[in-house]
Amino acid sequence: MNWGFLESVLSGVNKYSTVIGRIWLSVVFLFRILVYVAAAEQVWKDEQKDFVCNTQQPGCENACFDHFFPISQVRLWALQLIMVSTPSLLVALHVAYREHREAKLKRKLYQDKGSIDGGLFCTYTVSLVFKTAFEVGSLLAFYFLYNGFEVPILLQCSESPCPNTVDCFIGKATEKKIFLYIMGCTSILCIALNFVELMYIVWKQLWKLFSKRYIPVNQKPPSHTNKIFFFNLLSIFKNMLYNFL
Amino acid sequence: MSWPALYTQLVGANRHSTSLGKIWLSVLFIFRVLVLVVAAESVWGDEQSDFICNTLQPGCENVCYDQFFPVSHIRLWCLQLVFVSTPTLLVAMYVSYRNHKDKKRLLNKGQDEELETLKKRRLPIAGALWWTYACSLVFRLLFEAGFMYALYVVYDGFQMPRLVQCDQWPCPNLVDCFISRPTEKTIFTVFMATASSICMVLNMAELAYLVAKKKIIV
User: Fold this and answer.
1) What is the model's pTM?
2) Transmembrane segments in this chain: where (chain A) (predicted)?
């Protein structure tokens, strides 16, 4: 799997992220992709050869392995890494669309193509929500497929063609458990970073919008707090709508 | 990510380190990462397939292997290198934050300094950069020591025995199990431990140098 390609694509997105987004990217590259490529792949390399059952019945080991590992943990991990990295591309696409618009109309439309405001703010928020959803989804998939991050050394199997119940043994169970815990912890760390980043950009955007809404002292309408509140809210929505179009 | 990509990241941060820091980076990549890559496939590649136990009982070899090798040496070293490289990225993050702050400050003043020229300059190790750098050194030392200790505890020293005796279920009674290439593994383990100790000594010397420099200035 050519992770270098994914990395070069993601590094391009780095320009348009916030500080927390860059920390997230470093965590993904260093603690997830590097650990996956350099260590995890090797641990699961001979997983079927090392899956041994106490039987001479041909086909029993194959059937049992297939029953207990519908998809290998390491492949699920790789899929998780790919799915979690792709929403960032939405942001890059949006910025490219803005550049395309400027080039087409041949005039400067945006003060700063990369600043997170208006439509790009929505794209960024959506990409963060998708990232978090994929992370949580894969953790849940692990939980339901493999009963958590446990890798038992012994499994008992009674699939056909195995005679009665057969003891099957997994290879390198403890090492696999350690790496699954590492994967789980980095996943939770990334979820936390996504959450913090979401709070940060929402707060920054609200601050920007609220600080633009000021009413000069001599034009203050009669004090009815509700009216001012709804007036502000309406102008915020109007502003957001104009920024979109 | 692969080791060359990590190297590019670290070399970028290297510009702001002391000469001891530059020596540390070379030792890290030549004597540890390169040796790890070489040793990983050739020496530890067949560690489970050549782990032979004197029994016909199916499952006994798996269980005994799992008991004596909860984490392979190669994986521990790989994790150690990843963790030891991370504090340097802290310094790199701080430097890029400083560059952006300086660029904004210069923009406000009216001078439009290009970010590229700001990136090319070398910041002196003083003030907040000194503290970031010192913290990164302390963390590096902690991670190195921690992983060395973990290796020592898990494998009861740095030597790989030829024979281990195992009586985990389902092995019948006591079973002799033989490890593949024990001498070669011992040599590589001692080599990596020595390289790790050299790196720790370099880090301690660099920390002492930084502290002495700060005291002289103050």
Assistant:
1) 0.78
2) 21-39, 77-97, 178-203
